[in-house]
TrEMBL record:
<dbReference type="GO" id="GO:0007165">
    <property type="term" value="P:signal transduction"/>
</dbReference>
<dbReference type="Pfam" id="PF23282">
    <property type="entry name" value="WHD_ROQ1"/>
</dbReference>
<dbReference type="InterPro" id="IPR027417">
    <property type="entry name" value="P-loop_NTPase"/>
</dbReference>
<feature type="domain" description="TIR">
    <location>
        <begin position="10"/>
        <end position="186"/>
    </location>
</feature>
<dbReference type="InterPro" id="IPR035897">
    <property type="entry name" value="Toll_tir_struct_dom_sf"/>
</dbReference>
<dbReference type="InterPro" id="IPR058192">
    <property type="entry name" value="WHD_ROQ1-like"/>
</dbReference>
<dbReference type="InterPro" id="IPR036390">
    <property type="entry name" value="WH_DNA-bd_sf"/>
</dbReference>
<dbReference type="Pfam" id="PF01582">
    <property type="entry name" value="TIR"/>
</dbReference>
<keyword id="KW-0677">Repeat</keyword>
<keyword id="KW-0520">NAD</keyword>
<dbReference type="GO" id="GO:0006952">
    <property type="term" value="P:defense response"/>
</dbReference>
<keyword id="KW-0433">Leucine-rich repeat</keyword>
<dbReference type="InterPro" id="IPR042197">
    <property type="entry name" value="Apaf_helical"/>
</dbReference>
<keyword id="KW-0611">Plant defense</keyword>
<dbReference type="Pfam" id="PF00931">
    <property type="entry name" value="NB-ARC"/>
</dbReference>
<dbReference type="InterPro" id="IPR002182">
    <property type="entry name" value="NB-ARC"/>
</dbReference>
<dbReference type="GO" id="GO:0043531">
    <property type="term" value="F:ADP binding"/>
</dbReference>
Length: 1196
């Protein structure tokens, strides 16, 4: 996430911010000359003419490019809007990049600056009058108000910084003091060492700056910055060190430790000398052994607060030599950059005075925007590609995958080149990669000491990228490779683990690994250990050049250009007989001649997609096979048992091979037969005792899977998806004790053939569901009742029944015996509501019900649920939204909710805890009365056309909307009717201000009403600010706009329900309608709703004491979590400011749960809400406790 380049020559050491009329010809002029004399490059604005509303671009660049800013706060400083804008930007730089800021109080009082009094108060008042009050446009007024607020906060902040007071002092002495201070704090010995310019690194800089400043003065901290080679660790560390070293007594940047130790005779000794000189200035001391310097370094680190960066460390011995083992002085900070994240874990000081705290920061590749900026910076000297280069630039970015060094190297080589030359370069990269890039990346590989880990890395780079980790580990372990080394590869950033436990590797890292293999023999592929290039593999096989060197070979004939061949290409198996050490072989869509006995006997993984034979040849050596993949094959039956239909002579051969102690496939753990259309039967599981994974996807001719499947007792993963002709799922699956995953997607389970005959057990006939392990009953049920039985292993963790045409009634009542199940997928089924069996799952965490187009409600899923997926991506033109309710039990924990807003019925629906929409006529009268809405007599008569952000245009009855603790409704009338009778505040403008009056009764809410005259109207946002408490709520309604017929008034009425302390006596409140047409607003008024200790529960008014017996009509709404007075952290913009928009929040939950740049989760109810009665799920759990484990019946 960093680029490696240098700051432009226009960068500065110091930026001077001042008011020219006060100090330009006196104090500032003298200070500027003193700074320049001290060799501090200083920016002084020679043309202080304010033109326009914003700062000139060169001023912004100068501020951002300076290491320090001196702010001369004089009498008229605040009268200049440019000075105030400079101040805001300077303080932002202080926060984001650690810029040194020194305020000079030039004959002004710091308290006057902080509180905006005296001349500063006068200036701010004038800005408000001139800029704010004179502005008539509402949107611009809001922007001006925000700007003035930023100025005010900046003045307060700068006044609190440690600065210099000019009052009562000689200016010459003050200037010397300022210059000396800046020189020392910027690190005078290396002031003009150019700092790397970083792209896409704002978050990392912020993180490290915060880490440097937040540490305890009683502890020492160590930060490890790790990432793959060339990712920018050194540049980031150098940048931060250059900006922050002034905060410490002593600092040192020790660069290239690993490389210097490896290439220089006295490399480590020289590095120790440099570090000791930086932290102690003992240049007169000379030693000739690293142990002597180590002792002196330990002594220095124990006595001083230091900031040290050790760059490119690749061994623990280097840490011990440069940091010692005695610990550090309190408050010290150590940054280590490395490609091996585990190094710091192995470094442990012995009995340190202060135990260091370890933190890690992983640097990843640049995002698309930063990649484009870096590429453009070096290739075009601009921020964007030149016209005509956009497409080739995208291709270069795709090749580099955000790797900064690769982007920089390629961009520099393509500078001033034509588009055709760019295209030639990209073509060449497919054949031969840039050696400069690979060399930088290979340093991580070369530094590994373990031969096993190097072999492991090469195997993965050549054959196992994008493969399942468990699969890869199992195959490689069988090859004699110790896969515990995967942890080392991850620590060295050579490998990552992706979603679903997939092995992932950056494209350039993978190419580096393959280049290491190429180096074994550049010109003779047959003498390399691994062949992954299809053309090279084909040439080796065609020319019969197989050798003992080859351990793995991949050939897919679809990837070989066969235009040069006449007719079908066939290869002979004899060349394989020479590859005695071949353990991994992929021959996809290859036609072979010769005997299969020529296949190497050491094979562990055999993949032959498009296998042409109808059965497995019996002379194929398979006793050592761990993984066999015959996808897309012509095989008709897979059965290695004695009953395999073969001629007598061959059958006897099978019996001989399949003895009890030496089965033909006795070592096989992974079997894949997917997309084999001719396959009709799978059997002989007794000959597969080690089988762990069976994948048979989309075998459209598969009819039968043998009941002997329970003989493969090690099975963990079974995938039978889209085998639509499958007549039955083996009942013996339920006896397997280790199966974790069972996928039955698209098997059309609801249409399985059903037979019927008389049964002796009347009790069984009357039973709606059952759980049993009885073989007799299981056998009877499948043939005698109009439902089908699937025996589910109680060990299941994941079960998928996607696209099986199963209705809600198809499911059994109880799944409680699946006590280990955490992931259930019911996608694509015609489910109307949540099946009851789901509520009986005691550990369910993930539930999928996406693309269930008939779904109307999801009510009270288990409280253990953490992820609920209701997304719909298969819309039909005539589809109507049906989903009306999503509700939760009070005990429900934080949830990742994925619900497509277009799935919701727009006229009436509820996502409990987020939003509720219902016809106003259906709302209980006592609820309306408690809102203070006592005179709504017209709501049953009108219909409105609203354009909802949830479901588009919709004509419906007048609705009640509830979200964030805010009730609202929209209606129309032909004339103005004062529905509230009593209003406290009126305004003819779309804004109002007031102070909450004193009184004996507490305010618990506000009613707002505005009226609009017009045929259509876009709903404005409502912004309520409590200026006293510095709280602001900006509410964007779920309805985007509305329209009406005829010349009528359109009313928007809302009730804001506040918590305990948001609105109190004496608080100053402002309310604004944001982004609305002022000319359309006819009325805008507000009334208080008081908490008088009484609750309207219907026909009577009860006191607070009687609430125990009478439920609060608003109690349910108050129990929601994401409301005003509750948890609004996910909606926070800045401190005390919240943007309330349920549509954006729901959308964020659908996109990896990020909202407003922070991870969020949905929690329907506040922690305080407790359930008063036993929920339905608990009732089902009680029933389940009385049932034995075993099979489950699904109604057809």
């Amino acid at each position: 996430m960093v680029v490696i380049t240098e700051l432009s020559p226009s960068s500065y050491d110091v930026f001077l911010s001042f008011r020219g009329v006060d100090t330009r010809l006196s104090f500032v002029d003298h200070l500027h000359h003193a700074l320049m004399d001290a060799n501090l490059r200083t920016f002084l604005d020679d043309d202080e003419i304010e033109t326009g509303d914003d700062l000139r671009p060169e001023l912004k660049r100068a501020i951002r490019g300076s290491r320090a800013s001196v702010i001369v706060l004089s009498t008229n400083y605040a009268s200049s809007t440019w000075c105030l804008d400079e101040l805001v930007l300077i303080l932002e730089q202080r926060l984001t990049s650690g810029q040194l800021v020194i305020p000079i109080f030039y004959h002004v009082e710091p308290t006057h600056v902080r509180k905006q009094e005296s001349s500063f108060g006068v200036a701010m008042t004038e800005h408000k009058r001139r800029l704010f009050e004179a502005e008539t446009n509402t949107e611009k007024r809001s922007q001006v108000a925000e700007k003035i607020n930023r100025w005010s906060k900046a003045l307060t902040e700068v006044a609190q910084l440690k600065g210099k007071d000019a009052k009562g002092r000689k200016e010459t002495e003050l200037i010397v003091e300022i210059v000396t201070n800046i020189h020392r704090r910027l690190g005078g010995h290396d002031l003009h060492g150019t700092l790397p310019l970083l792209f896409g690194m704002e978050d990392s800089i912020k993180f490290i700056t915060s880490w440097l400043k937040d540490g305890s003065s009683h502890n020492a901290d160590i930060l490890t910055i790790f990432g793959m080679g060339g990712i920018g660790k050194t540049s980031l560390a150098r940048h931060v060190h250059g900006l922050q070293c002034h905060l410490f007594h002593k600092s040192s940047f020790v660069e290239g430790v690993g490389e210097k130790c490896a290439t220089q005779v006295n490399g480590l000794l020289d590095l120790q000398k440099q570090l000791l000189g930086d932290i102690s200035k003992t240049s007169q001391i000379h030693a000739h052994h690293t142990l002597a310097y180590k002792s002196m370094i330990e002594n220095g680190l124990n006595r001083k607060k230091v900031f040290i960066v050790l760059d490119n460390i690749d061994s623990v011995d280097q840490l011990h030599a440069l940091l010692g083992k005695e610990g550090f002085y309190p408050g010290s900070k150590i940054i280590i950059t490395t490609k091996d994240a585990s190094l710091i874990e192995r470094y442990a000081p012995i009995n340190p005075k202060v135990k260091p705290k370890h933190t890690k920061l992983l640097l990843k590749g640049l995002n698309i925007e930063a990649s484009l900026q870096l590429l453009s910076h070096h290739a075009f000297l601009s921020h964007r590609p030149e016209e005509g280069y956009e497409e080739v630039a995208k291709q270069v970015m795709a090749y580099c995958e955000g790797h900064p060094l690769a982007l920089k190297v390629l961009a520099e080589s393509l500078y001033n080149k034509t588009v055709a030359e760019w295209e030639d370069c990209l073509t060449g990269l497919k054949e031969e990669h840039d050696s400069r890039i690979l060399k930088a990346l290979q340093m991580s590989f070369d530094s590994m000491q373990s031969i096993n880990d190097k072999e492991l890395f090469k195997h993965i780079a050549c054959f196992f990228v994008q493969k399942d980790r468990v699969f890869a580990e199992t195959v490689l372990n069988s090859c004699g490779i110790r896969t515990k080394g995967i942890r080392n590869l991850i620590d060295r950033c050579l490998l990552t683990i992706g979603p679903d436990n997939i092995l992932m590797m950056h494209q350039l890292i993978q190419e580096m690994g393959r280049d290491v293999v190429r180096q074994e023999s550049r010109d003779k592929p047959e003498e390399r250990s691994r062949l992954w290039c299809h053309e090279e593999s084909f040439n080796v096989l065609e020319d019969n050049k197989g050798t003992r060197y080859i351990k793995g070979l991949v050939l897919d004939m679809r990837m070989v250009e066969i235009d040069m061949f006449c007719g079908p290409v066939q290869l002979d198996t004899s060349t394989l007989s020479k590859m005695h050490n071949l353990i991994l072989l992929h021959l996809n869509f290859v036609q072979l001649n010769g005997s299969y006995k020529n296949f190497p006997k050491k094979l562990r993984w055999l993949c032959m997609h498009g296998f042409p034979l109808k059965s497995i040849p019996l002379d194929l050596p398979m006793e050592n096979l761990v993984a066999l993949d015959l996808s897309y094959s012509n095989i008709e039956s897979f059965d290695m048992s004695f009953s395999n239909p073969q001629p007598p002579a061959k059958r006897q051969k099978v019996i001989g091979l399949c003895s009890k102690n030496k089965r033909l496939l006795g070592s096989l753990k992974f079997l894949t037969l997917s997309f084999s259309e001719q396959l009709s039967r799978i059997g002989g599981f007794s000959e597969l005792p080690a089988l762990q994974s069976l994948i048979v996807i989309n075998c459209i001719g598969l009819i039968d899977i043998c009941e002997s499947i329970d003989q493969s007792a090690e099975l963990v993963y079974i995938d039978l998806s889209y085998c639509k002709k499958l007549e039955r799922v083996p009942k013996t699956i339920g006896r397997l004790k280790k199966v974790k995953t069972l996928l039955l997607d698209g098997c059309d389970l609801a249409a399985l053939p059903i037979k019927k005959r008389n049964m002796d057990s009347l009790q069984l006939l009357e039973s709606r569901f059952f759980c049993t392990n009885s073989r007799a009953i299981m056998g009877a049920i499948a043939n005698d009742m109009k439902f089908f039985v699937i025996s589910l292993p109680i060990s299941l963790v994941r079960l998928s029944l996607t696209n099986n045409n199963m209705s809600t009634e198809s499911f059994p009542m109880d799944f409680s015996c699946l006590s280990m199940l955490t992931d259930l997928c019911l996608d694509g089924n015609p489910i109307v509501s949540l099946p009851n069996c789901v509520r009986t799952l005691p550990r369910i965490e993930t539930l999928g019900m996406s693309n269930c187009l008939k779904l109307m409600s999801v009510e009270h899923p288990p409280h253990t649920l953490r992820r609920l997926n209701l997304y719909n991506n298969c819309w039909k033109p005539d589809h109507k939204n049906l989903l009306r309710k999503i509700s939760f039990v009070p005990e429900m924990a934080a949830l990742e909710l994925i619900a497509d807003r277009n799935l919701l019925a727009p006229s009436s629906f509820e996502i409990e805890g987020m939003i509720k929409i219902q016809p106003l006529a259906g709302v209980e009268k006592k609820v309306l009365r408690n809102l203070g809405w006592r005179w709504l007599k017209f709501y049953e008569l009108r219909c409105m056309v609203t354009n909802s952000n949830y479901g588009g245009p919709q004509e419906s009855q007048i609705q009640m909307y509830y979200e964030f603790g805010i009730f609202s409704t929209i209606y129309t009338l032909r004339m103005w009717i004062d529905i509230m009778r009593i209003w406290d505040i009126f305004s003819k403008k779309p804004s109002m201000s007031f102070t909450i009056p004193s009184g004996p009764i507490k305010v618990r809410g506000l009613n707002l009403l505005y009226a609009v005259r017009g045929s259509s109207f876009e709903l404005p946002m409502i912004k309520i600010s409590n200026l006293t408490k510095d709280l602001t709520w900006i509410y964007k309604h779920c309805i985007e706009s509305f329209s009406k017929r005829g010349d009528m008034y359109l009313y928007f009425l809302s009730h804001w329900m506040f918590g305990m302390n948001e609105m109190e006596v004496g608080d100053k409140i402002t309310i604004k309608l944001e982004k609305c047409r002022k000319d359309l607003i006819r009325k805008f008024q507000m009334s208080f709703v008081y908490d008088d200790g009484r609750v309207d529960v219907g026909n009577e008014i009860t006191s607070t004491k009687e609430k125990v017996e009478k439920e609060d009509p608003l109690g349910y709404y108050k129990s929601w979590n994401h409301i005003i007075g509750g948890d609004l952290s996910a909606f926070q913009l800045t401190s005390g400011e919240y943007f309330l928009n349920s549509v954006d929040f729901l959308r964020s939950l659908c996109s990896n749960a990020h909202y407003k740049e922070r991870s969020v989760s949905f929690n329907a109810f506040s922690p305080a809400k407790k359930s008063d009665k036993l929920g339905h799920a608990q009732e089902l759990e009680d029933i389940a406790e009385r049932l034995p484990p075993g099979s489950y019946d699904f109604k057809a």
